[in-house]
User: Fold this.
Amino acid sequence: MRGAACVENIDYRGERGLNRSVIRALAQKSCWVKNHEHIFVLGPTGVGKSYIASVLAQKACRDDYSVYYTRATGLLRDLNLARADGSLRQLLKRLNRIDVLAIDDWAMAPMAEAERRDFWEIAADRYQTRSLIRRASRCDERCEPAGRGCRRPYF
Assistant:
């Protein structure tokens, strides 16, 4: 996770457009983890998506949930290595025991078919049992009203 990322240090000023009430609701006893919900942090480069994902993961740790924070490239590399050496089942079981799996830099590059299947299995195993944070640099009409450009993260 990012160094000093914690909910108390979030800077709500500026053009990032963070909604304080949304962040506070998510951070409140990490209720989203208790409810086995997933968080997708989307938006353009430079608006603080990784920081917000780190804040929420760090808060979950402080609320006594287990968290594994990784970049997508590292997770996909680990899955490929585990598939090659026959330990994929064991890796998937270890990942499924973690309360929050936080994946940074999601969808930065196309995934191979085997990687898509592996991730689908991770997501299916976590459905209504564990939580997931995915952070990606994607932006569409949901980020800002049409014509205004994309300047803030979208949850």
Remarks:
- The chain has one domain: 7-136.
- The chain has six helices and four strands.
- The longest helix spans residues 49-62.
